[in-house]
Write a structure and sequence with these properties.
319 residues; alpha+beta; Archaeosine Trna-guanine Transglycosylase, Chain: A, domain 4; five-stranded mixed barrel; two-stranded antiparallel sheet; 7 helices; 8 strands
Length: 319
């Protein structure tokens, strides 16, 4: 076999739903479908190697070959544990990209021929610049999204392999499966970094817009709450002013009636003092019944209209 000829391998296939595995990733999978369990068992009998490919539709229970992406990751089964509910929990490690060239006839489990897709570990000034830019954009993404820990950035910053850097960063992004699959299918390292950079730029713009919208909504809510508080304050003030104006109007009406009554000056003076006392008492909670009547022959009383009036029918007392 020549050095440039891709190696074809016969491997059991495990279709994944809503999940994608990149080379260098180590993660746990819970496997419950019968064909998938048998594929794992077959892998453990051989060399523990299995091909992990993602389904295009998550809700398909028994996917056909048309429902499975052709490019996946050859992975090594590191650990397998059977859970009480019958599910198999496995620890897998992604090793290398591979492309399905043929689905083999097997009723017990999915089995395929897959072509290895090794990547060239090349580097040049442009790739170095792309790596730095991608790291900077990933840092901005972390600061905006708050979904990735700063420790992850520190770990990613230590990666010096451009292809692995792109894979690891992409595994931490909240992307649609088809976008992650596009990165997986991009074998050329420089093109992969460029695609990842575009994704990061788009994600940053979306996150910045989300933050602006959130801030605008928050300010609007604060403004609404402030306006409501001020309106309630104004209602209370207006109510208070209305009550005071009502009390002042009542006193003025009594004074007007006093002018029309034509009582002697001494009586007038006494009644005016009592009206003043009545007005002041109405401005604070009453503490004595003295505000109810005026202690002269003239006393405020409520007529049919409900308003206080001055009666001079009684003979004025001599002071």
């Amino acid at each position: 076999m020549g050095p440039n000829k891709a190696k074809i391998r016969r491997l059991p296939l495990l279709p994944l739903r809503g999940l994608l595995v990149y080379p260098s990733m180590v993660l746990h999978l819970d496997v419950g479908r019968e064909k998938s369990v048998r594929a794992l068992e077959r892998a453990m009998v051989d060399d523990s190697m299995i091909l992990l490919c993602t389904q295009s539709e998550i809700n398909i229970e028994e996917p056909s070959k048309e429902d499975i992406y052709r490019v996946g990751t050859i992975s090594k089964v590191r650990q397998m544990l059977k859970l009480p509910n019958g599910t198999i929990r496995v620890l897998v490690e992604g090793i290398m990209r591979a492309e399905i060239t043929e689905f083999l006839s097997n009723e017990d489990y999915y089995e395929v021929h897959a072509k290895e897709l090794p990547e060239l570990q090349e580097t040049n000034p442009e790739i170095d610049a792309l790596m730095r830019t991608v790291l900077n954009q990933f840092e901005h993404y972390i600061n905006l999204s708050k979904k990735v820990t700063p420790e992850t950035l520190a770990a990613v910053s230590d990666i010096d392999e451009p292809g692995r850097l792109a894979d690891v960063i992409c595994s931490h992004l909240s992307l649609k499966i088809k976008d992650k699959q596009d990165i997986l299918e991009t074998v050329d390292v420089q093109q992969r970094l460029e695609k990842l950079l575009n994704i990061l730029n788009n994600e940053r713009e979306v996150l910045e817009l989300e933050r602006k919208i959130s801030q605008r909504v928050k300010k609007q809510m604060e403004k609404t709450q402030k306006e409501y508080y001020l309106r309630e304050q104004m209602k209370a003030i207006q109510k208070e002013l209305g009550e005071k104006e009502g009390r002042a109007g009542e006193a003025e009406e009594l004074r007007s009636q006093l002018e029309e009554a034509g009582v002697p000056d001494k009586v007038r003076e006494k009644i005016e003092k009592e009206i003043d006392r009545l007005e002041k008492c109405r401005e604070r909670p009453p503490r004595a019944p003295s505000s109810a009547t005026i202690s002269t022959g003239c006393s405020p009383f409520r007529g049919r209209s409900g308003r206080r009036t001055i009666s001079t029918s009684a003979k004025p007392r001599t002071f």
